[in-house]
Amino acid sequence: AGLLVWSKGIGSFGNERSISVVETADSGFAIGGNYDNASPGSSDFFLVKLNRNGNKEWSTSIGNQREEILVSMRSSSDGGLVLLGHIDQPDELYLVKTNNQGIPVWSKNYIGLTPNLAFDFQQTPDLGYIILCSTSSASEPTVIKTNNLGTPESVSYTHLRAHETPEHLVCRLLLEKKKKKKKKKHTTNAQDNTTHSKTCKRC
Predict the structure, then answer these.
(1) Pairing of the two strands 117-123 and 129-134
(2) Pairing of strands 56-62, 67-75
(3) Considering only CA atoms, which of 70, 14, 73 is closest in space to residue 49?
(4) CA distance between the termini of the chain
(5) Tens of each residue's pLDDT in the chain, 203 residues
(6) How far apart are CA 89 and CA 67, in angstroms?
(7) pTM of the full predicted structure?
(8) Residues of the chain by 3-state class (helix, strand, coil), percent to 5
(9) How far apart are CA 146 and CA 85, in angstroms?
């Protein structure tokens, strides 16, 4: 136990800072992070795809002439990747969806919303996303629910419970939403059964 299987150096861009690693659908790995590009005061996301043996299959960068800062990355249900971060000057939330080759399919800049600091996110059962974020001047976490294309559907404010991390909060909110949906379905079924009893002659 604990024996080294393999180790690899994956530097591709220069001055990289790895932020996240996820397992991919083909049992490989995707590594995401930030690197300083050629423009002064500017950084981009980078992605590196490894196979199951740690051999690099491809690498790419995502960004423009501003400072994109990656915070969290997840595998998506369709085999692609989703990256969450924020952009400095002005502060904006930034969500990017890629295919399985790291090519962006869509990206969303959340401009005009009060939150501007990203913490974490999860894909929801309806294939949308729930994003945990906040403002640089407020301690109240904010939750943004989007559809499968990253378009906001709702914005709500919540509080961290004692000893609760932002990651635990995201999981708790997803669980509470699942319970509410299950309770609503149960109530609907009970109403349907009551209506059936009143209208069915055999009952």
Answers:
(1) antiparallel
(2) unpaired
(3) 73
(4) 64
(5) 678 888 988 776 668 889 999 999 999 999 999 988 766 657 889 999 999 999 999 999 998 767 888 999 999 989 999 999 988 755 788 999 999 999 999 999 887 665 567 888 999 999 999 988 876 555 567 788 899 999 988 777 665 555 555 556 666 666 666 666 666 655 555 566 555 555 555 54
(6) 8
(7) 0.73
(8) 15, 40, 40
(9) 15
